[in-house]
Amino acid sequence: MGAENYFVNDFKVYVAVTAHYSVDGVISPQSFVWEDGENYEVDRILSVCPAASLKGGGAGMRYTIRVRGRVTFMFLEEDGGIYRWFMERRT
Q: Which pTM value belongs to this model?
């Protein structure tokens, strides 16, 4: 199956994340790399809860974060033992 056959979601962007993992199991994202290659620091984590992405589809732990003064969501999803971070693209 070629790449042209895969579902493309214009609202879901997988990102590389640098995170801190505490000894008590708390995962705290510190920064991420957006699809254009720019690195963004997470200023603050405002909340963490299980939730679905209404724009991008999928579900997981939703991190409400502040980046450069703007509030946005970052999701940690699990699929068959594989964990990936994604964010919703602004439209």
A: 0.85
Order of strands, edge to edge, in the sheet holding 27-33?
16-21, 27-33, 39-41
Of the pLDDT bands very low, low, confident and very high (cuts 50, 70, 90), residue 4 is very low
Q: What would the 3-class secondary structure string for 19-66 be?
A: EEECCCCCEEEEEEECCCCCEEECCEEEEEEEEECCCCCCEEEEEEEE
Closest CA to 49 of 82, 24, 74, 15: 74
Closest C-alpha to 60, from 47, 78, 72, 45: 78
Place of tokens 């939730």: 51
25, two tokens: 């199991």
Residue extents of the structural domains in the chain:
8-88
